[in-house]
Amino acid sequence: QSAEQWMRAGVTLLRVPGGRALAERPLARALRLDPTLKPKIEAARKDVATSKPTGEADDDAPGVTWGRQDEAQRAETVEKLKTGANEMLLKAGTTKLAVYETKYFLFYTDLTRTEAMRWVEVLDRMYARLAEMFGVPKAENIWHGKAVIFVFLKRDDFRKFEKEVFNIDKDAGGRCHQRSDGSVFITFFRSDPAEGFARVLTHESTHGFLFRPLPLAV
Fold this sequence. Notes:
The protein has helices at residues 3-14, 24-33, 38-49, 71-91, 113-134, 155-166, 194-211, and strands at 98-101, 105-109, 147-152, 174-178, 184-189. By secondary structure, the chain is α/β, with parallel strands linked by helices. Strands 1-2-3-5-4 form a five-stranded mixed sheet, with helices on both faces. Helix 1 packs antiparallel against helix 2 (24-33).
């Protein structure tokens, strides 16, 4: 990654509740690659220090520790997640989302197949980068089964889904919903430009990471 990419990753962590300590590694790497980024990083630190952390995470089980799953357990969990996701879609009155499955994610979306495939390819690469930053062993799956992501083309469809499924009637760019069994559901809509959409994807996935990996990394 470039120095700018490491800086953006660190700043994202700074803004996530519980992520400030984890932000030090990517920020330090950014500075080693490009010392001229120091003013930008200091400005980001100052901004975070004087503002409330962002995020809409639903952590209803702080401090819970989950064990690793073997392949059979993970496969069973993934099937349950798929059933649960379909029930969520029916509850919200939509059946138009296609599902794309990656090594670490179940990606439900009504984006065009071309664009969906573009983001599907990004997801597992993003996971690898987050795992590196958090010190998760290479290729280890820290999710409960897999993380479930819902991406809607329209903001109104995202808001309806949030209201019907999670009983949240408040606008946001995206949310990370976390459950006491360790499962993670990420929801957002296709905002413009693509760079902003990518930031939301990374931001909300980081919430899920902060919820899941730390007990496994000890």
